[in-house]
Predict the structure of Putative agmatine deiminase.
Amino acid sequence: MTTRNLPGALEGACHATPAEQGFSMPAEFAPHDACWMLWPQRPDNWRYGAKPAQQAFIEVATAIAESETVFVGVNDDQYENARIQLPDHVRVVELSSNDAWMRDVGPTFLTHPDGRLAMVNWEFNAWGGLDGGLYFPWDKDRRIRTKVAELLGVECFTVPVMLEGGAIHVDGEGTLVTTEECLLNPNRNPDMTKAEMEQVLRDTLGVKTIIWLPRGCYQDETDGHVDNLCCFVAPGEVALTWCDDPADPQYAISREALEVLESTKDAQGRSLKVHKLLQPGPLYIAEDEASGIDRLHHSHPRRPGDRMAASYVNFYIGNEVVVMPLLDPALDDAASAIIQDLFPSRRVVGVPAREILLGGGNIHCITQQQPSRAASRS
């Protein structure tokens, strides 16, 4: 593993940036070699010692493993439990974490036309640090990216910018979508301007065009991660969380996003085709669902009646499957049909995911794709 620090994203690079070296971030719908996950166990975030959540994670891992290798990182004290419960073909590795959101604490993978794989090691402060962050400490989470780089033996670019994987989505052809609510939040990089953040994204991920949506989903505790609101499903096409109720705060958020998306060209000069996915519910934490959680002053509270940021856009695009959350019996089938139309060559697998949502995210949030090296050479 080679680690390169790149303070030059802001201050004048002492090394060539990943983009200058020919690296870029591929789309999630491009071929994968693997998927990385983490095992839930945090008792102040997951009820009843995370036992219900573990079952949901097992279903997600099993579905993804139909068409690609799945690695599940586990703390030592849960290793045996995870190994016994997960299917034999899912690979369990000791990889300590503070919680289970691999999308945000795991690496952002890059590929090179010559077949090389690399990764980005961003800074991480648990979605806001001491100013609105979701838990403390986050020291184990900050080491995950370098550990994965060691395990894979790939080059690791360390970029001293606070950024979580769920805050960005790319089309693999030079376009990135994100939200101002998250990437420009003062609890992430308070001294950075919008132009400076754009330069970091271009230098690090090899993108040309950055689409800024104003806000993420209503009540999203990540400060508006884009992967809960909008994602690329193909070059020139996005899925967008939608709401038809003018009295719902999500109504205005979705329409703001639609206006931006419909008035923007991507890096290839295309107008974007927007596919709307009605939000589930709205969904709220039930009285019994708020019980069984340890109450700690440094952790985000889970209270009865709290609205959850539920979204069908929060799915994982695997090699041969799309794993989507089942959240609302009244809308699950309709959402599944739309997603199936978007991915005709893949099989849509629905997984009961309310237990993941109760922890603050969903299927996309707990997964991180490792792109195929062979595909980058094609």
The first helix runs from residue 8 to 11. The radius of gyration is 19 Å. The longest strand covers residues 155-162.
